[in-house]
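Good morning C.,

I know you're traveling, so I'll keep this short. The sequence:
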Amino acid sequence: MSRNSVRADAQHSRDDLVRALRSAGLRATSPRVAVLASLRNRPHTDAETLMRHARQELGTLSPQTIYNILGAFVEAGIVRRIEPAGSPALYELRVGDNHHHIVCRRCGAVGDVDCAVGKRPCLTPVETHGYLLDEAEVTYWGICPTCQRRSGMTTIAGSNRTTATSDHPIRATGDRR
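The tokens, ready to paste straight into the viewer:
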């Protein structure tokens, strides 16, 4: 099993998670397996939520332990850390495939968006300032379908634009509260 093969499908057993950790050069401790299992079921999750779920399984677990585990996972390449503006760091198992993210401005929901170009870095800056570029992180921002329904917005067919049916001007423009 390659280090990039920990996916968020229900067929992964605990043994698969142990093998994934070991193949990444990590010891398969109970806290690590619990955090990895939690990430498998909850993509784009913050450390606090992961700690809460791991504690349900293991009992006590310190915040420092969670951050150490997540740091080891990121360093080993089996977990990706993303940092949408205004949000705590989020972690996911989808690594190594050059995908991007879409974030709801209202509720903070996060989804995966496949890269339109398909290869890294997928964006070319006007000036590299001598850097050797290997990645561009793209975050799309908008209003998710659930928040659109709640506020009376509807997506215009065939486009990525929305129209507001709310008569409240702030809600209609999509400003956060």
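Safe travels,
E.
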